[in-house]
Design brief:
The chain is α+β, with helices and mostly antiparallel strands and 647 residues long. The chain is built from 17 helices and 20 strands. It folds into 4 domains: 108 residues, Gnk2 domain, C-X8-C-X2-C motif (Killer Toxin P4, Chain A), CATH 3.30.430.20; 100 residues, Gnk2 domain, C-X8-C-X2-C motif (Killer Toxin P4, Chain A); 97 residues, Phosphorylase Kinase, domain 1; 233 residues, Transferase(Phosphotransferase), domain 1 (Orthogonal Bundle). The chain has a 6-stranded mixed sheet, with helices on one face. β8 and β9 form a beta hairpin. α11 runs antiparallel to α14. It is globular. Bound molecules: 2-acetamido-2-deoxy-beta-D-glucopyranose (NAG) (9 copies).
Length: 647
């Protein structure tokens, strides 16, 4: 929903004794009104009243959806109702039925509306709302009181939310809901996260990242918080379990016809009366901005799988050298996909038909066999749809091979910098690529059990699968080559000019924020179709990032958008440029983390800071097209990543 008139991010500060009096919270949309007593109204009323009679399976799990075409008009109406996951089918139906009637009173003619109440949300629109992540309007409540020791508390909360988020997102198509508790000093934290079950796992995860991100900006350190969005919600309280425990088999099937509500009157004050009468003590929140990051992966199940894997991994990941030699026609030149600093990459096909990419490491990694195996085992566990999957390795004498999944559509640089092929990337595809790379990078930085700093993120390291989904390649090379993973100065710089953050290029200091810098350059390249280190304007050579910043400041960003991008939301493009500029800030602390980048990309209601002039530095090789790496102490090690392409 995109409603300038909806009060977004309304923040209520509550005393610790609370407060169903803050419900119901209606948001009447501003996109347009229908005519009173029209077929539109009749259709809407009919849809909403079907809540009290439907016996769909999903309602038993707390979710209602319905849609209908308004006869005589080319309009479809969509309604979603969702209950908190611990409600019984009967209470859910009663809550939705009551909210449905309230919302008609409170927003009589609006084509879109959302009504939040303590236990359920009713939402309708004339635009399709099924299966879409909608985080506006947000309703947030926060306790005025602060926790005593925020560090311990936030660490415990963050871990708890991380696992709940994965559990909820992976919950299946009937219910995406999770609750849990954690201890922090003498306090007990109770938390609940939920998405509407029409979302996919990834969408649910995105929605929760957004609402938890909003929490990070408003309310960190408070004793309790409740944040509601149309597609998902999140709440925690201290020392008060506010949800009922749901038994393992989900709600009891067939509900008898629900009893009538205690209050029969249909007017706008009814729900308030009910709400106050049934008020449950709620403790809610406010705060300062610290971004809590939610882990995307289901923690528990994953760990269990990994333990089982442990026994067999080394063997199952190790490929026989002969097999790989056969798969690549004895490493024949005709199978060569690319040549990089770490070695040549070949395409291969296993006897079962599976296509693979084989990187034949040319350098001595400086590691013994055992360390090498261990690293590969760790990297092979990093699995994310936006990472190129490492399938295994092969050791034979001095030969060290890494076996990857084969990604068919070559790499991003082959498209965006190619005068003809760039036309294959319309704005939607480019946007999808930006989002995918951001997700993959967030996973490397925050969500995987290893904290991986890529150190060489660039367009040629973004491979594209058959649907043009991006997959980050060459992550973890720094680990295999025994380069420190923590933020540290290093005298061995691995990276590519044009993409390297200044503190990394000049002092060897790398951190997640140096990857963020590279990501910012990548966004600007994707939008403009220009290479950062080769950008030319008339006679003068200027770095793309500076030029973009100037245009941004002068309000002429249309100048920098790739002319082959002919359609697409101009606000979305402008927002991407803005985020790109924030990522290439000179000062490390001014650059956002990948978690905030995703939040900014996902939620248009998050205000962006004004970027300063981006980091600017020139080096001798600025004219050269070759990515280079430089060793500041002695050796030079070139890193040109594997392209996995045929030409
Ligand atoms: C919803 O209604 C508004 C106002 O009448 C209209 O501008 C908009 O196009 C409609 N949306 C859809 C998807 O029909
Ligand atoms: C649904 O709400 C309406 C209006 O409040 C009420 O008249 C009706 O009895 C309710 N139906 C059920 C099944 O709760
Ligand atoms: C409810 O939503 C699902 C998608 O999540 C859709 O397939 C189904 O048609 C919807 N039901 C109705 C009645 O519109
Ligand atoms: C829609 O109706 C509401 C009252 O129901 C009114 O306040 C609002 O101004 C109307 N909006 C438009 C665009 O007509
Ligand atoms: C706290 O969580 C554990 C599982 O992590 C659960 O067994 C226990 O019942 C929960 N306690 C309460 C009071 O909810
Ligand atoms: C919300 O649900 C809880 C648990 O079922 C219940 O105790 C409470 O009374 C409900 N609140 C309202 C306003 O109905
Ligand atoms: C593979 O190539 C190497 C050198 O390129 C050669 O020595 C070897 O005999 C070849 N092996 C096979 C099986 O063709
Ligand atoms: C990507 O790969 C698929 C299958 O390999 C192919 O059909 C498609 O045309 C490719 N897309 C582009 C833009 O090259
Ligand atoms: C590089 O990192 C070190 C600590 O690892 C720090 O002392 C130094 O100031 C950093 N230098 C720059 C230029 O950021």
């Amino acid at each position: 929903m995109d409603p300038p008139n909806l009060p977004l991010l309304l923040l209520l500060t509550l005393a610790s004794t609370i407060n169903a009096q803050f419900f119901p919270a209606p948001y009447c949309g501003s996109t347009g009104n229908f005519t009173a007593d029209s077929t539109y109204q009749t259709t809407l009323t009919a849809l909403l009243s079907s809540i009290s009679t439907t016996n769909s399976l999903s309602l038993k799990y707390g979710f209602f959806n319905a849609s209908a075409t308004v006869s005589g008009a080319s309009q479809t109406l969509y309604v979603i109702g969702s209950c908190r996951g611990d409600l019984t089918a009967e209470s859910c139906r009663a809550c939705l039925n009551a909210s449905a009637s309230d919302i008609r009173d409170l927003c009589p003619l609006q084509k879109e509306a959302v009504l939040y109440s303590e236990n359920c949300t009713v939402w309708y629109s004339n635009a399709s709302i099924f299966g879409t992540v909608t985080t506006d309007p947000v309703y947030q409540l926060a306790n005025v009181n602060n926790v005593a020791s925020p560090d311990t508390y936030n660490a415990a909360l963050r871990t708890l939310l991380g696992s709940l988020q994965g559990e909820a997102a992976g919950g299946g198509s009937l219910r995406k809901y999770a609750t849990g508790n954690a201890s922090a000093d003498y306090n007990k934290i109770y938390a609940m996260v939920q998405c509407t079950p029409d979302l996919t796992e990834q969408q649910c995860s995105d929605c929760l990242v957004t609402v938890v991100g909003i929490f990070g900006q408003c309310c960190v350190g408070k004793l309790g918080v409740n944040i509601m969005a149309p597609s998902c919600r999140f709440r925690y309280e201290t020392n008060a379990r506010f949800y009922d425990l749901v038994g393992e088999p989900l709600p009891p099937p067939p509900a008898p016809p629900p009893p009538p509500l205690e209050s029969g009157k249909s007017n706008s004050t009814k729900a308030v009366i009910i709400a106050v009468a049934t008020s449950v003590s709620v403790v809610l929140v406010i705060g300062i901005a610290i971004l809590l990051v939610v882990q995307r992966k289901k923690k528990q199940p994953r760990q269990r799988i990994e333990e089982v894997d442990e026994i067999s991994t080394a063997e199952s990941l190790q490929f026989d050298f002969g097999t790989i030699r056969a798969a690549t026609d004895n490493f024949s030149d005709s199978k060569k996909l690319g040549q990089g600093g770490f070695g040549v990459v070949y395409m291969g096909q296993l006897s079962n038909g599976q296509e693979i990419a084989v990187k034949r490491l040319s350098q001595n990694s400086g590691q013994g066999e055992v360390e090498f195996k261990n690293e590969v085992m760790l990297l092979a566990r990093l699995q994310h749809r936006n990472l190129v999957r490492l399938l295994g390795f092969c050791l034979e004498g001095v030969e060290r091979l890494l076996i990857y999944e084969f990604v068919p559509n070559s790499s991003l640089d082959q498209f965006i910098f190619d005068p003809l092929k760039r036309a294959n990337l319309d704005w939607d595809r480019r946007h999808k690529i930006i989002m995918g790379v951001a997700r993959g990078l967030l996973y490397l930085h925050e969500d995987s059990r290893l904290r991986i700093i890529h150190r060489d993120l660039k367009a040629s390291n973004i491979l594209l699968d058959s649907n043009m989904n991006p997959k980050i390649s060459d992550f973890g090379m720094a680990r295999l080559f025994e380069l420190d993973q923590t933020q540290a100065e290093t005298n061995r710089i691995v990276g590519t000019y044009g993409y390297m953050a200044p503190e990394y290029a000049m002092h060897g200091n790398f951190s997640v924020k140096s990857d963020v810098f590279s990501f910012g350059v990548l966004i600007l390249e994707i939008v403009s179709g220009q290479k950062n280190n080769l950008f030319r304007l008339g006679d003068s050579t200027e770095v793309l990032t500076s030029y973009v910043w100037k245009c941004w400041r002068e309000g002429t960003i249309t100048n920098i958008i790739d002319p082959s991008v002919t359609a697409g939301s101009s606000t979305e493009i402008a927002r991407c440029i803005h985020i790109g500029l924030l990522c290439v800030q000179e000062n490390v602390a001014d650059r956002p983390t990948m978690a905030s980048v995703l939040l900014m990309l996902n939620s248009h209601s998050v205000t962006l800071q004004v970027p300063l002039h981006p980091a600017f530095f020139i080096h001798r090789g600025a004219e050269s097209d070759v990515s280079s790496t430089q060793d500041y102490s002695s050796r030079v090690s070139e890193v040109e990543s594997n392209h996995l392409l045929k030409n």
